[in-house]
Amino acid sequence: MAKKDHVSLTPATRFLRDNKVAFTEHPYDYLAHGGALHSAAELGWDPYAVVKTLIMQDQDAKPLVVLMHGNRKVSTKNLARQIGAKSIEPCAPEVAHRHSGYLVGGTSPFGTRRSMPVYMESTILALPKILINGGQRGYLVSIDPQLCVTLLGAQAVQCALAEVLP
After folding, report:
1. In terms of DSSP bridges, do strands 50-58 and 88-90 run parallel, antiparallel, or are they unpaired?
2. C-alpha dihedral over 10, 94, 98, 77, to 10 degrees?
3. How many angstroms separate the CA atoms of 111 and 125, rounded?
4. Pairing mode, if any, of strands 139-143 and 130-136?
5. Rounded to an integer, what distance in angstroms lies between the CA atom of residue 74 and that of residue 69?
6. What is the mean pLDDT of each run of 10 residues along the chain (166 residues)?
7. Does the pTM of the predicted model rise above 0.85?
């Protein structure tokens, strides 16, 4: 499949444009279960700067968004402790879709169907630019990570597990 140079409007890109955010588009050949490591390799970026958007829920099934480095895992215990929840777990794909409006592999924190609290690994904020999903499988956008705080009210947390994914 040939890569596209431009991806059609998504709820995420509409949100970014409505908020006058400058971003660059980075389409790539999507691979099911390839994740951030695949997209980083396809686009020639460090997986640490490719940020994955995870839809999770607390013990009361209240949804939340977690932004994490592409080569790190989330410590749900540490996250729960920091946000005052008893427990945190990933949502099932169909539940994540219901909350976000996006398919797994194409989930963006921007333009979600439902407003949810956003938590981001604090070390992401030290990066000059990040790649984050643009609202469609095989499509990332490059932005300043500070915009996640400005536009989404993202709260910095420290919940990355020390081990690095291959």
Report:
1. antiparallel
2. -100
3. 21
4. antiparallel
5. 9
6. 59 95 94 91 96 97 97 96 97 96 95 96 97 96 96 97 69
7. yes
